[in-house]
Amino acid sequence: MIIKPEEITSIIKSEIERYENRIETVDSGTIIQVGDGIARVYGLDECMEGELLSFSNGVYGMALNLEQDNVGCVLLGTEEGIKEGDVVKRMGKVVEVPVGEALIGRVVNALGAAIDGKGPIVTTETRAVETRAPGVIDRQSVRQPLQTGIKAIDSMIPIGRGQRELIIGDRQTGKTALAIDTIINQKGKDVICIYVAIGQKQSTVAHIVNTFTEMGAMDYTIVVSSSASETAPLQFIAPYAGCSMGEYFMSKGKDVLIIYDDLSKHAVAYRTMSLLLRRPPGREAYPGDVFYIHSRLLERAAKLSEKLGGGSLTALPIIETLAGDITAYVPTNVISITDGQIFLESELFYSGQRPAVNAGVSVSRVGGSAQITAMRKLSGTLRLELAQYRELAAFAQFGSDLDRETRRRLEKGKRLVEVLKQDQYSPMPVEKEVIILYAAINDFLSEIKVAKVRSFEKKFFEFMDTHHRGVAGSIAENKKLTPEAESELKAALEEYIKIFLAEEQ
């Protein structure tokens, strides 16, 4: 076998061409202390706040405390297999979550990984969990309504696209139910919904996902779950992760609704983390920046300017109070950040008024600009009449001898309260809300017994759908009650009330 010199030369040349001289530098540190989901690492000189760190067991961590001689970081997973002396590597990027259309209809954890057993989520784009909120120039005023399908809210405490409206109340007063109804009502309205469950029981989250599936709401909803069994850092990150997923769609010019259920548990998770990181405690043992963690989250809700695509992110944070005390630390913080609050009261809930919205304490700082014209005209008198009824009802308990006008107002108030009651999972289109509120406010229901008002409402809608479908269509199309539609509605009410009363007798 003869080896030719030119062959050897060509082999050496090709090898030289393929040779790459690459030096890989990794900034790493050593664990000096680990426990309770917290690790202290020595030697990460270039580390930045919020940076992702990689541990030996494949779990990631997030740097939070940058101290003089060590970095305090929280583990985003189990600490099993991590021990003192292990090497920790910097990833050179902040914590990110996957975003995109592939997430719609899925249940994911705080890091964006699927937990619904439907296989991995295939998406190429990621987004940092912490981003800057849009500035004043990048926003436009909130003026487009986001219908909840709940009469009491759409009429008196309207929510606009891009608003932040707090849902506040004691436990078991229907806060989550109200949020779920709002998501169900977005069907067919081209709104992407995100439900973030923070510190909830896994069975509760499973029940909510089942409800969404049955109602067909999972087709446009993402559920981000960080259950009570997960570590505090994952519960802390969950709302920011959900917000980043929503911002992706907002930047594409779409409307997004996000629900944080609930921020009380989020604040508790942050307090746990902060105390373990040895940050100084303040009022109620919360750290000094507990206000900032919620303000930087809720400020990301916005209605973007037309130049940026005109997308919106509407946030409905939920806060749980103790014994109706809205003056506690976290509730007052969140009230001061949001554009209004829906206050749910235990007393009203147990007296049978559901949703148990207290119209006196609840407020929307966006107001009528987030309502259709027809609803705005009706809601002006509604709030006033309800307030007068409450005052008179309290007064009437003591005296039996009431004049005619007072009795009329009390009777009307009772019927208004009855009309505002609504069953769970049955949101109502805005045109139907306008029709029934018109009947109640303009004294059409005075002859109907209070106990029969709900029955009348149901049967009246069936009558309208059969004989006067044009009224609802006109309200939906024109966003206002035209003189023709109003006269037709009046005639229909007069006609049906006679039929209803005759049936009852």
Detailed description of the structure:
With 505 residues, the protein is an alpha/beta fold. Helix content is 39%, strand content 17%. It has 15 helices and 16 strands. The strands form three sheets. Strands 8-12-11-13-14-10-15-16 form an eight-stranded mixed beta sheet, sandwiched between helices. It has a six-stranded antiparallel barrel with strand order 1-2-5-4-3-6. The protein has a two-stranded antiparallel ribbon with strand order 7-9.
Short description:
The protein has 505 residues and is of the alpha/beta class. Helix content is 39%, strand content 17%.
Name the features:
single chain; 505 residues; 39% helix; eight-stranded mixed beta sheet; 16 strands; alpha/beta
Helical content stands at: 25-40%
Q: Would you tell me the overall average pLDDT?
A: 92
Number of helices: 15
The largest pleated sheet is described as: 8 strands, mixed
Count of β-strands: 16
Instruction: Estimate the strand proportion.
Output: 15-25%
**Which strand order do you get reading across the main beta sheet?**
8-12-11-13-14-10-15-16
* Gyration radius from CA atoms, angstroms: 29 Å
Q: Specify the overall morphology.
A: elongated
The quaternary structure here is: single chain
- Poorly predicted runs of 5 or more residues: none
Distance between the termini: 116 Å
- Class computed from helices, strands and strand pairing: alpha/beta
What is the topology?
Elements: H1 5-18, E1 28-35, E2 38-42, E3 51-54, E4 60-66, E5 71-75, E6 87-94, E7 96-98, E8 107-108, E9 126-128, H2 151-156, E10 166-169, H3 175-184, E11 191-198, H4 202-214, E12 221-226, H5 232-251, E13 255-261, H6 263-276, H7 290-298, E14 312-320, H8 329-337, E15 340-344, H9 346-350, E16 363-364, H10 373-396, H11 404-419, H12 430-441, H13 453-467, H14 469-478, H15 483-504
